[in-house]
Structures are given as C-alpha cells and as structure tokens.
Amino acid sequence: MNLEIGYSKKADKFLENKNAKAITEKEVDTLIISAIKKIFKIENPNIDLKKLKGKLKGCFRIKKGDIRIIFTLKRNKILKILVNDIDFRGNIYK
Q1: Of 42, 89, 37, 25, which Cα lies nearest the Cα of 61?
Q2: Among 2, 9, 43, 59, whose CB has the most other CB atoms within 10 angstroms?
Q3: Nearest C-alpha neighbor of 79 from the set 48, 45, 33
Q4: Rounded Cα–Cα distance for residues 12 and 85 (Å)
C-alpha cells in the first residue's frame, strides 16, 4: 500500500511553533499509520480513533493526551492523507 501524508498550513504551524515539544511530525506520522491500519482492519492497534460527524463529516480524529489530530483520507492508487489540523483539545473544534 502506497501512502502519502500531507499537512495543511494550520497543522504545519502547530508543529513548528512553541508546540514542537508537545508532539513531533514523526510522532504524528506514526499515529496516522496506526490509524490507517485500524481503519482498514490490518491490525488493531491501541489508538483512540473516531470518525467525526457534523461539519467535520468525512474526517477522522486521533486523540493523544490533550492533543487532537484531524485528518481526511482519500483512496486512489495512492492512499492520500491530509492532516487538516493539530491542536489542543480546547481549541481544535472551533
């Protein structure tokens, strides 16, 4: 399975600024790969993953401590993941 992970400007900004110590891009990539394995039932990793509803319908949410990662998934020949947003739990759904 070919996998391509992209980051929005908002997600990049979170990772680059003062929050770089909270979570790194490598950790986010690892969480995304675990989530994909869980979505496609390849493995059942211990990850808090939820399909979102409402205005974020079609997105998935990964929860790691106080940090939330929201991403979308597009299936073609290459599986494309776009990390829409990364933020702390009080700010992510605004």
Answers
A1: 89
A2: 59
A3: 33
A4: 8
DSSP code for 28: H
pLDDT band at 91 (very low <50, low <70, confident <90, very high): confident
Instruction: Output 51-60 pairs: Cβ under 8 A, ≥24 positions apart.
Output: 56/93, 59/84, 60/35
Instruction: Convert the pLDDT of each residue in 13-25 to its tens digit.
Output: 999 877 778 899 9
Which amino acid appears at position 79 of this protein?
L
Domain 3-87 in CATH 3.30.2310.20: yes
Q: How far is CA 84 from the centre of its chain?
A: 8
State which amino acid sits at residue 38.
Answer: K
Q: Supply the pTM of this predicted model.
A: 0.92
Measured CA to CA, the distance from residue 26 to residue 28 in angstroms comes to 5
